[in-house]
């Protein structure tokens, strides 16, 4: 996936001052290896962090910049870093990069790892210095074979240059970095399931507390951050807090830039680095070019399959967590999907819920049993064999699998698009209910507690 641009928004070239994540990208889409990366000020921020900044000052700088997680949850990065123990006797601690990018319709981390592998390594190096972690792992989605090759080459280049390994930059600080490819489970995007998988265990989420900062991989203090999150760190250290905060549009409560995109039947599907606070309409019309000829926008998701559907009239919402929250859903990963007017929402939701049901770890009852029930009901509605009350049962499942009702956030994310689809397109679901025949015995339906 190469970075693309469209229309008038492309008149301003990418620069280090405005596009900290992507200004180093090559026009041909080839990777930026060490020599070119260093020629473009690569590892300058790492040298500054090692030579001029105390470890706690790095943490405070990231906290003051307001960097938030870019994987979808949006937790403040500096706050997470601050949870790591201060006790110097706990000298075995780990930094994990969550590169298990399996959210449907999301490919932003893949672009960074394939084309700018050294940016991620530099971000992890600075973060490791701040957190006093001596070993790091990039937990990579197994299907990202090209990213694995590029990351492993970049790690070897950094080792040869003295940027990884022992006594980095003459500081006495040691940091080893490994690329670990996963076995293909969506649930590994949850940080404690990722930790279990890295240890060779079944990828089930863990009970919290204790949190990974206290008891993480192999029982040691561990910090887990997303790829895009870590890639923001060098620019923050290199350019400072005020500069980073100035990047976002007026009105945005989030700071910096974000990789955003649009897929679906748009004229120019792609991925762009944009300031927080741009409107979804600008992303959709100026960058993605609007819908292809002959298609009309029916609805859209702002950030992956686990976010709720929005209507065309919601396109004026600003793309940041609070802006999307005002129209009733979450920003998620920031990569939107356009649904055209030829798509039947029942079929689309059946496809989505099948994915989420298959990817459930099966640990807790609501998720293990509730998601397959939603699939059965949607399949019946899709075939025109639904029964009166099926929609109410689906809505009951949306509530029963909502936030705080399950062991982790998998099920709440899975049912959020279902609830929004019924809210906005209920007639399409009602059309799948068959007329009951005289004397017919209704099929068994799930009993939803608390519905």
Automatic annotation (TrEMBL):
Keyword flag Zinc: no
Reported cofactor(s): [4Fe-4S] cluster; FMN
Reaction(s) catalysed by this chain's protein: a quinone + NADH + 5 H(+)(in) = a quinol + NAD(+) + 4 H(+)(out)
GO MF, any single term: NAD binding
Domain NADH-ubiquinone oxidoreductase 51kDa subunit iron-sulphur binding: from-to ranges: 346-391
InterPro entries: NADH-UbQ_OxRdtase_51kDa_CS, NADH-UbQ_OxRdtase_suF, Nuo51_FMN-bd, Nuo51_FMN-bd_sf, Nuop51_4Fe4S-bd, Nuop51_4Fe4S-bd_sf
EC code: 7.1.1.-
Record keywords, A-Z: 4Fe-4S, Flavoprotein, FMN, Iron, Iron-sulfur, Metal-binding, NAD, Oxidoreductase, Quinone, Translocase
Free-text function comment from the UniProt entry: NDH-1 shuttles electrons from NADH, via FMN and iron-sulfur (Fe-S) centers, to quinones in the respiratory chain.
Family annotation (PANTHER family): NADH-QUINONE OXIDOREDUCTASE SUBUNIT F (PTHR43578:SF3)
UniProt record similarity statement: Belongs to the complex I 51 kDa subunit family.
Assembly, per entry: Composed of 13 different subunits. Subunits NuoCD, E, F, and G constitute the peripheral sector of the complex.
Protein name: NADH-quinone oxidoreductase subunit F
Species of the source: Pseudomonas helleri
Underlying gene: nuoF
């Amino acid at each position: 996936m190469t970075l693309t641009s469209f229309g008038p928004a492309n008149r301003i070239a990418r620069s280090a001052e405005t596009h900290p994540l992507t200004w180093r990208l090559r026009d041909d889409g080839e990777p930026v290896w060490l020599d070119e990366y260093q020629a473009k000020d690569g590892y300058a921020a790492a040298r500054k962090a090692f030579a001029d900044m105390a470890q706690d000052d790095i943490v405070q700088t990231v906290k003051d910049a307001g960097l938030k997680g870019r994987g979808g949850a949006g937790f403040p990065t500096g706050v997470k870093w601050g949870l790591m123990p201060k006790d110097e006797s706990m000298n075995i601690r780990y930094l994990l990069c969550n590169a298990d990018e399996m959210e449907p319709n999301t490919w932003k981390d893949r672009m960074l790892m394939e084309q700018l592998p050294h940016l991620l390594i530099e971000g992890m190096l600075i973060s490791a210095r701040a957190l006093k972690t001596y070993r790091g792992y990039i937990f990579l989605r197994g299907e990202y074979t090209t990213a694995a090759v590029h990351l492993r080459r970049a790690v070897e280049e950094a080792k040869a240059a003295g940027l990884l390994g022992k006594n980095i930059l003459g500081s006495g600080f040691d940091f080893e970095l490994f690329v670990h490819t996963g076995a293909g489970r969506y649930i590994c995007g949850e940080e404690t399931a990722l930790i279990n998988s890295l240890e060779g265990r079944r990828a089930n989420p863990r009970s919290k507390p204790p949190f990974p900062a206290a008891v993480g991989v192999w029982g040691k203090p561990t910090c887990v951050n997303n790829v895009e999150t870590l890639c923001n760190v060098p620019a923050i250290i290199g350019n400072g807090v005020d500069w980073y905060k100035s990047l976002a549009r007026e009105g945005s409560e989030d700071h910096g830039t974000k990789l955003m995109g649009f897929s679906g039947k748009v004229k120019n599907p792609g991925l762009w680095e944009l300031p927080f606070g741009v409107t979804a309409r600008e992303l959709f019309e100026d960058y993605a070019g609007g819908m292809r000829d002959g298609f009309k926008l029916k609805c859209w998701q702002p950030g992956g399959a686990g976010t709720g559907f929005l209507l065309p009239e919601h396109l004026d919402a600003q793309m940041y967590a609070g802006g999307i929250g005002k129209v009733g859903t979450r920003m998620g990963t920031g990569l939107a999907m356009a649904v055209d007017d030829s798509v039947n929402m029942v079929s689309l939701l059946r496809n989505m819920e099948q994915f989420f049901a298959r990817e459930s770890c099966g640990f807790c009852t609501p998720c293990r049993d509730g998601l397959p029930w939603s699939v059965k009901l949607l399949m019946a509605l899709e075939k025109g064999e639904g029964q009166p009350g099926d929609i109410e049962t689906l809505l009951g499942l949306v509530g029963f699998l909502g936030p705080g009702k399950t062991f982790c956030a998998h099920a709440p994310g899975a049912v959020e698009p279902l609830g929004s689809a019924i809210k906005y397109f209920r007639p399409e679901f009602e059309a799948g209910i068959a007329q009951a025949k005289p004397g017919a015995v209704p099929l068994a339906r799930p009993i939803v507690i608390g519905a």
